[in-house]
Design brief:
With 192 residues, the chain is an alpha/beta fold. Helix content is 32%, strand content 29%. The chain is built from five helices and nine strands; from the N terminus they run ββαβαβαβαβαβββ. β3, α2 and β4 form a beta-alpha-beta unit. It is globular and about 40 Å long. 41% of the residues are buried.
Length: 192
């Protein structure tokens, strides 16, 4: 059972994606991640993007903790439907439509927003499927780097056995942390 850990919707039980096609972020990892983000002042009034959202738990946790807007991007039909249900749960508690869902491939979504010149995000979560290759991940990071605010933080969640992502021009890795079989990589826009 996944839940929102803290904030306005803290304790709310979230719907999980049926089957084993997604890997929900454990409460332990989520608590540590959000503690770090709060210490960096990366939650209140931020624009959040949750790529490969799965159930959307990281995005809706951000909304519960004060994000201004959250976009969940998920291609899988079942997972996108779960994202929508969790977005509705949190939006109801918050009394406004903070969380939206885009059913789209991540690459297509990012190409559209880059071409349209819309949105800059302050905080981005990426928990891609393990079969996503490092080259594919680097391509997505390259598209993403073009749409980040100057003080943005990108969090990439991968298997602890995978290497550090190849950061494209425009992104610099600045930290990593291992939690059992999960490793979080942190990046920020490169200094000019």
């Amino acid at each position: 059972m996944t839940r929102i850990v803290a904030g306005a919707a803290g304790g709310t039980t979230l719907v999980s994606v049926p089957g084993d096609g997604t890997r929900p972020t454990t409460d332990r990892v989520k608590e540590a991640l959000f503690s770090r983000l709060e210490s960096m002042n990366m939650l209140a009034d931020t624009r959040v993007l949750d790529l490969y959202a799965g159930s959307g738990s990281l995005g809706v946790e951000s909304a519960s903790r004060g994000a201004k807007s959250v976009e969940l991007v998920e291609f899988n039909d079942k997972a996108a439907a779960v994202c929508q249900r969790n977005a509705e749960l949190v939006n109801k508690v918050l009394g406004s439509k903070v969380v939206t869902v885009q059913r789209s491939k991540v690459e297509s979504f990012l190409e559209r927003v880059v071409d349209a010149g819309v949105d800059q995000w302050d905080l981005v979560f990426m928990d891609p499927p393990y079969p996503l290759t490092e080259d594919e991940l680097s391509l997505v990071l390259g598209l993403l780097a073009q749409r980040l605010s100057p003080f943005a933080v990108v969090v990439v969640e991968r298997s602890a056995r995978t290497p550090e992502p190849t950061w494209p021009a425009g992104l610099d890795g600045f930290a990593e942390k291992k939690y059992g079989e999960t490793r979080l990589w942190f990046a920020e826009p490169a200094a000019d």
